Fold:
Amino acid sequence: MRKEALIRWLFLGTAALSIVISALIVLTLARETFTFVTQVDLSSLWSEGWFPRRDLYDIRTLFAGSVLVTLVAMVVAAPLGMGAAVYLAEYARPRVRRALKPILEILAGIPSVVLGFFALTWISPEIVQRMNDEAALFNLMAAGIGVGLLVTPLVASIAEDAMKSVPTALREASYGMGARKVTTAVRVVIPASISGLVAAFILGISRAIGETMVVAIAAGASGGSLFSMNVFERGQTMTAAMASMAGGTDAVKGAGLTFQSLFFVGMMLFLLTLLLNMVAGRFVRRVRQKY
Amino acid sequence: MPPDSKLKAKKGIPTAQRLDISRSPSDVSLTEQEPVPVFEVDDLSVYYGAFRAIRNVGMTVCERQITSFIGPSGCGKTTLLRCFNRMNDLVDIARVEGSILYHGINLYHPEVNAVEVRRRVGMVFQKPNPFPKSIYDNITFGPKIAGLKGDMDEIVERSLRRAALWDEVKDRLKDSAMGLSGGQQQRLCIARALAVNPEVILMDEPCSALDPIATGRIEDLMEEIKSEYTIIIVTHNMQQAARVSDMCAFFTAEVNETSDTRTGILVEFDKTEKMFSNPADERTENYVTGRFG
Ligand SMILES: Nc1ncnc2c1ncn2[C@@H]1O[C@H](COP(=O)(O)OP(=O)(O)OP(=O)(O)O)[C@@H](O)[C@H]1O
Ligand SMILES: [Mg+2]
Structure:
């Protein structure tokens, strides 16, 4: 009995510890963010680019970079991931599925740094620069495609789970009415699992926004960047900007508020992904309720 | 003429006739004429992988009759029923031997399109399985995917009226079908099947999830629509088989000598009256009088 109690306290302790750590992280973020917002020259938040060492903290630059990369990533990952999910859930015979699912997991396990170099050395010259011969070698497009590939297995696997959870009885009802496979997938399975599919999509976005390494490598790992909405130019995302600031020895400790700006960007990233995950969670719960 | 184009060529004509003619009581004489065969099953065996679920079944199912399948659990009633609209195609390991002629066309001929078959031979399942869509969209699903043009409102009303559900749902057609009671859902599934004007309706224990009142309504409904449709119903309810069906087939499962698996066989197939009053086979008698299974 004493042992029971001991184990109970042990687990309670670990659970509490993780909560405390999370709270500390948020607190640190909040404190430095506060310092930054109160001390920064507010006009520098809206300038020609993100150059923290020159006290230019144009937040639009980072937002534009993140949004563009995420957009490109989802344009790649949504059709690929959903397509793979429909195929696995509705078309693949059990044996094929058993062979394909592990491959998907291997794909999900590729380190992002590897994908980053792949994006830089192959996607950029072979795909992006062929699409647009004025494209720079480092560009947001290549980074976006790379992130898209990284996110595809995640989207595919969540979407497949959602479609698999649609009861066979519904498929049989559809086939029994004389529906073909495509019709059944498009008119019955997808609508019935739509909240799960939306969740897959949102979690994909959240993962794409948070992705750092691919962007840092393929979009140009420089300290600063001019504001640009051109995906064929080099650019900076929130994540890559933080990584590049924290990369060098003196970079972080650089002039002025460089150090604090890092937390400021981190805070925004945190709030953004938190929001997305909450929205996605709501959709996932909706699926669970239905069946 | 290849079977497929025959299946296609016939499309529309018999259904249209069925639709427009409202049958008067004088039509009762039709049943006294020689019944027209719809399905002729010959030497049919179904395998799941190496396991033979039913063997050497032969029977003829006639137009505008209700044929019931009875027998102990596991004797292959569902398996056989799902052969009539090729639903077994969806089971990877299922394999069919022998033949089922549908108006003289072998359903398992390679050129026959299973999708086309299922539009003529509709199905109602054991558990009500409405789509998680509105009542209205449940009914229009079939007509829409079949490319049927025409007044959808009218199709919805007609189908729901036939399934004796119209009065209960006419004010909430846009509401989700999931909000209906089990019995209502099952009648909705019947209405959904009727909406594409099939010739045959297969029902696999359609009342097993329903209470006696809901069951009674579905039985009345079958009685009502049988003048226009051919119905095959699987049931575990002996009274139900006796009440509603014209013909009755009794199946049982025989233990195989070589392995301890059981294969379903058709024991007896005759007029329901005869099956329940004076069956030819002792096993039928034991089953219908409740001395077995
Ligand atoms: N998809 C399947 N794969 C493998 N075996 C199956 C499959 N479906 C049915 N069987 C087997 O075939 C046999 C006949 O099953 P079936 O469902 O046709 O019986 P049934 O007469 O409808 O039984 P019940 O009255 O319980 O519904 C059983 O032994 C069953 O285990
Ligand atoms: Mg059954």
In short: The CA atoms of residues 63 and 245 of chain B lie 13 Å apart. Residues 36-121+189-288 of chain B form a domain with the Rossmann fold fold (CATH 3.40.50.300). Chain B touches chain A at residues 85, 87, 90, 92, 115-119, 122-123, 125, 127, 129-133, 141-142, 145-146, 189, 192-193, 196 (CB under 8 Å). The pocket of magnesium ion (ligand 2) is lined by residues B 77-78, 204, 234 (CB under 6 Å).
